[in-house]
Write a structure and sequence with these properties.
single chain, 915 residues, alpha/beta, FAD/NAD(P)-binding domain, six-stranded mixed beta sheet, 26% helix, disordered N terminus
Length: 915
Amino acid sequence: MPSPISRTVAVIGAGAAGVSAAVELRREGHRVVVYEREEKLGGTWVYTPQTETDPLGLDPTRDVVHSSVYASLRTNLPREVMGFRAYPFVATGKPGRDPRRFPGHGEVLEYLRDFLAELGVEEMVRYGREVWHVGMAADDRRWVVKSRRSGGGGDDDDEVYDAVVICNGHYSEPRIADLPGIDEWPGKQIHSHNYRIPDPFRDQWRTGDVHLNLLALLEAYPLVVVLIGSAASADDISRDIARFAKEVHVASRSAEVDKIGKFPGHDNIWLHSMIKSVHRDGTVAFHDGYKTIADVILHCTGYKFYFPFLETNKAVTVEDNRVGPLYQHIFPPSLAPWLSFVGLPWKVVPFPQFELQSRWIAGVLSGRLTLESPEEMTADIEAFYSSLEAAGIPKRYTHQMGESQFEYDDWLAAKSGSPPIEEWRKQMYLVTGRRKRSVPETYRDQWEDEDLMASAYQEFKLLKLSMPSAIFRTVAVIGAGPAGLIAALELGREGHRVVVYEREDNLGGTWLYSPQTETDPLGLDPTRVVVHSSVYASLRTNLPRELMGFRVYPFVPTEKPGRDPRRFPGHGEVLEYLRDFAEEFGLEEMIRYGREVWDVGMAADDRRWVVKSRRRDCGDGDGDNEVYDAVVVCSSHFSEPRVADVPGIDEWPGKQMHSHNYRVPDPFRDQVVVLIGSAASAEDISRDIARVAKEVHVASRSAPVDKIGKFSGHDNIWLHSVIKSVHRDGTVAFHDGDQTIADAILHCTGYKYFFPFLEKNNAVNVEDNRVGPLYQHVFPPTLAPWLSFVGLPWKVAPFPQFELQTKWIAGVLSGRITLESTEEMTADIEAFYSSLEAAGIPKRYTHRMEDSQYEYDDWLAAKSGSPPIEEWRKEMYVVTGRRRMNMPDTYRDEWEDEDLLSLAYQEFNLLKLSV
């Protein structure tokens, strides 16, 4: 037998099984080449929005798409159970990663990439090589592997190896349910292999020449969908589709009689037994007696094992989804050990099993482990097949394991000289399975196995047995605007469990435009129905997108249809960016939409917080009281207007409005309008109104004497000092001596900080728009770190500052960052307040920063272990501010900071240095 070192082994597939096989084979001293048809590793876990031309995946001439991952997919096993034993799957602190116990598919892919990098597998992988033939060489002792560039087009390679390990996944060749009458049924069919969450230009499925965007279709025309299946994908997809469909009917072979009927907690999902027949009028009849007229049948019916490249002269066949004969699901007796399979069993914890299978194969190939004779293996296979037949288990379930997997795994461990599967892993699998069945909606985010987690992390040597408190922090975030979204991300990364409360039905906060306005145009009536949006239709950002975006997720133009590519985009583009951000990092599922928080106060033990919420517009009904370790207040400060105190206003006859209720200029057509304010909204709105108004007079506290008078470039806009008085004849008199008879006064005078839900206990107050006492605008000393605020400073580049504030909060809550003592924080606040007073800065400007923001941001960065704010970002802010003052009409569309743009995009790794 050749030296173990001399074994050459071809591994087919660079998914989790292939990567594990490569590692174990190389550890054993073999020389390994991994063939991967895609341009990246990951196999099953590589998501692509692309789908096949045949939505059922039956057309043998179709271009096969090997991914079956849908966009919303999360693991149905916790990461601790799921990871390789040699490389635990624990949350990292890396930017953009998903820290959840049951992460999304993207996090699994990143974990596999980390595994590859850590163990140096990459050099073994040949990407973009499609294996189209594997067969015995002429000497019948070695294997010829024929490959070509993926997509065809020549460049064929024939290479000879001592052994081949087949690790290509079994999630690309759909199995379709056999339905009586389906040939005449008129509806549409799709297999879950081709299910994604599509947008208008991706993930289309079609029949003939008719292209169907399934979720968009469901949203526009609510359909009745019948979904066949009972596995994890069926559970997930049925709930995903139910958000859009009129009805979803799940046909399950394993449906328990007492569970048949409407899904608990869902108004439009029903569980049925199997389909009895379908009919040409669209009817779908179930064995439980129920019928419905359906538009779509979605087959979540699994996959066929499929190895079109394999030529074994019938030594290995696939019959009714049994791959065989295989000894222990791995070795075909007549070809062992030179041909083997990894990853065929299903309903298992896959990665640890891949590891053990690969270790056994590697040891057998090296001669370190002795494999049974062909006769012994054949006898074992025959006994196994007989036991399945005696138990009435169909052939297609040959590789299904479920709870029997751990007996198999421990057998593999014994064969390969490895420790048996850990008890905590076995128990965690069983506990997760029970909770998945009993609480399918919440099992991923609410768990009761902290003792098993402790055992896991003790073994990983990453966490202590007692587990740091960060693992157990429960945090309520109030508001799903930009501050709330980044808070959710950073808190989750730190290991906290987060719930975000959002009173609206959409994320976005300040950036969520609504044409609706309040009944009181000044926003002073305490009984009014509050409209939280303050965005006007024409609003564009007054900062360039490069400066404005989160550092972890640059705000760059996309090629998506309908998007706004401008450097200073409209409000709708900012909202879309926030939606992209939430989708990218899987934040949406943390958010409870339509929940209005009406009370936040200390629990009876004075150590935790009670958050009381209710469905918006439901009054006192539908209330929830939940207890959290900490609360992070991220509700915006752009919904409670501040109104100017104008002498004589009670007798002035004109109309008044606050900019909070301004949307479009039409109500001011042909009128004389006085606008009070000098901030960004005043600049924009004055020019917006001037398009239709007779005259616009801007009264500004900060108007330079040399600028008073008619606006440059405008025939009907004047700048004045502040209003001196108004009179019953309609006159508005300014301190500069000018006066006019006005029809309307528009207050662009800012907003009050307003936290009506926060219990008044004197620990935090709002006085003349100072929220305090707060250490560094974030922590009230007597309640820190359990209560904190994000986003109070103004005249700043907000999103990067939110990011740094939330990193600091998250690290303090986890114990990774030490917070100053109550006394130290209080002393710092007092010194800050004294400095403001000495400088003559009014209390209401406590949270105004402007040029001082970057000193503050860099302080936060140092506290949280982050890089300081980039120099290009600081310079871009200053340059933009100067141009806004000097060229208010054109600064958004004419710029001279290409050098800073270049640095920004160089850092984003999206554009070349030349931009």
